[in-house]
Amino acid sequence: MTENQRIALALGCILLWLLWVVDLYLQYRRTLRSADRLQLSQVEDSVLIAYASQSGTAATLARQSADHLGASQPVTLLPLSQVSSDTLRTVRKALFVVATYGEGEPPDNGQRFARKFLGHSSGASGEVATLDLSHLSYSVVALGDSTYERFCAFGQRLFDGMAALGARALNPLHKVDRAQGDTGALASVMPAWFRASPAMTHDRAPPAKQPVIWWRLAERGLLNTGSPGAPLFELTLRAVSDWPRWRAGDVFELQPRQPRAVVADWLARHQLDANEWVVVGGRGQTLQAWLRERRLPGGRFSREKLLCGDFSEFPLLPMREYSVASCSAEKALKLIVRQQADSHGNLGLGSGWLTEFCEVGELFGGRLRENSHCHTPDHSRSLLMVGAGSGLAGLRAQLAERAAEASVQGGAGPVWLVYGERRAESDRPLAREVETWQQLGIISRCDRVFSRGASDQPGYVQDVLAAHAQDLCRFLARGADIYVCGNRDGMGQGVDRVLRQQLGDREVTSLLENGRYRRDLY
Question: Which stretches does DSSP call E strand in 274-332?
Answer without folding.
Answer: 277-280, 283-286, 320-323
